[in-house]
Design brief:
Protein name: Acetylornithine aminotransferase
Number of strands: 17
Subcellular location: Cytoplasm
Radius of gyration: 21 Å
CATH topology of the largest domain: Aspartate Aminotransferase, domain 2
Number of helices: 13
Strand content: 15-25%
Cofactor: pyridoxal 5'-phosphate
Subunit structure: Homodimer.
Family: Belongs to the class-III pyridoxal-phosphate-dependent aminotransferase family. ArgD subfamily.
CATH superfamily of the largest domain: Type I PLP-dependent aspartate aminotransferase-like (Major domain)
CATH architecture of the largest domain: 3-Layer(aba) Sandwich
Length: 392
């Protein structure tokens, strides 16, 4: 395998709910859900049944045809959101790539090439994928360095800085892309005032506002999508990760007026919208978009924050706790600056899977339906891991 990862010395072989077992039979409490992917836990019986049933019917057809699961998913997503139009891809990166292409296409169709209305504005420390376009739009240079000439007309400004946004967004801007909560950048929520500022500025300058909800979408923040809590409606929204609960799928949601600019032949995907992925995703959205699950996200969020505050009152390992719903970041205190990977390693040794979001932030993104008993066991293992780490 290409050496682009640095895998942990553990090979998972089986998982159920929020527990994972390695090849030696050791169990781990999973507080990552595969980087906010398995939102209903591993091997959810309803999803296993849906996938198995679809696998016996239709796996794939070319995009010369449509298929019933894709149509059902498009209908479910548009009925539940501001959107009237859906495009399906295979990942968050592909969804963002499509959204950015669509934004430029809309600007050129509406204003012509002579208007030079092609600038895309993004934010420092943002992350939008690993294609050459999306890694250039992302605000972390370490991911784009070393790949030669990059796509141009992209600007990066400070996140949550209203003055910087007002200065940057102008009549040459075709789109602003923002994460409602920066995930890879440190689990930093956007303020409501900041998002409203972006909405107003985009409207004023005829630019499109894109919400990258690859990590925040499908219930992660306690609503189906984070924009629903912000009081701000984007023009384009992207989703992936939890949408397929581990089966690869991405989606671009937008209005009919914007979506029509992706006319026949302007974009496409061989596997995007295939029956297996869309059948699973349709069931995922059906199961998650309920008061029971979404209220449970908020309740579990409060429980985790209280537990982390309790751990911190004794250990002093955290400087700040932040996030939304079950996307939670714990920034390390000065004494442990740059040690997030070390704590991840210690946690794994004590039987709990956690993430980081840069060298100074631990990230928690458990399944939305994780049982409290399992959650408490995972947090207890984490506390023992922190004690062990501090004593080394």
């Amino acid at each position: 395998m290409a050496p682009v990862y640095a895998p942990a010395p553990v090979i998972p072989v089986r998982a159920q709910g929020s527990r994972v077992w390695d090849e030696e039979g050791r169990d781990y409490v999973d507080l990552t859900s595969g980087i906010a992917v398995c939102a209903l836990g591993h091997a959810h019986p309803a999803l296993v049944e849906t996938l198995s049933r679809q696998a016996e019917q239709l796996w794939h057809v070319s995009n010369v045809f449509t298929n019933i699961p894709a149509l059902k998913l498009a209908l479910r997503l548009t009925e539940a959101t501001f959107a009237e139009n859906a495009f399906f891809a295979n990942s968050g990166a592909e969804a963002n790539e499509a959204a950015l292409k669509l934004a430029r296409r809309v600007a050129i169709d509406r204003f012509g090439t002579e208007a030079r209305k092609t600038r895309i504005i993004s934010f420092e420390q943002s992350f939008h994928g690993r294609t050459l376009f999306t890694v250039s739009v992302g605000g972390q240079q370490k991911y784009s360095d070393g790949f030669g000439p990059l796509p141009g007309d992209i600007s990066h400004i400070r996140f949550n800085d209203i003055d910087a946004a007002l200065a940057a967004i102008d009549d040459r801007t075709c789109a602003v892309i923002v994460e409602p909560v920066q995930g890879e950048g440190g689990v930093i929520p956007a303020t409501a005032d900041f998002l409203r500022c972006l909405r107003d500025a985009c409207t004023r300058h005829n630019a499109l506002l894109i919400f990258d909800e690859v990590q925040t979408g499908i219930g992660r923040t306690g609503s189906l999508f984070a924009y629903m809590d912000a009081g701000v409606t984007p023009d384009i929204l992207t989703a992936a990760k939890a949408l397929g609960n581990g089966f690869p799928i991405g989606a671009v949601l937008t209005t009919a007026e914007i979506g029509k600019h992706f006319s026949v032949g302007t974009h496409g995907s061989t596997y995007g919208g295939n029956p297996l992925a869309t059948a699973v995703a349709d069931r995922v959205v059906e199961l998650i978009n309920t008061p029971h699950v979404l209220d449970g996200v908020r309740e579990r969020s409060a429980h985790i924050f209280a537990s982390l505050r309790s751990i911190n009152s004794r250990t002093g390992v955290f400087r700040e706790l932040r996030g939304a719903g079950l996307l939670i970041g714990a920034e390390l205190s000065d004494a442990y600056h740059g040690r997030s990977k070390d704590i991840m390693t210690a946690a794994l040794e004590h039987g709990v899977m956690i993430l980081n979001a840069g060298p100074n932030v631990l990230r928690f993104a458990p399944a939305l339906n994780i049982p409290y008993e399992c959650l408490d066991e995972g947090l207890a293992r984490l506390e023992r891991a922190i004690d062990s780490f501090r004593s080394d």
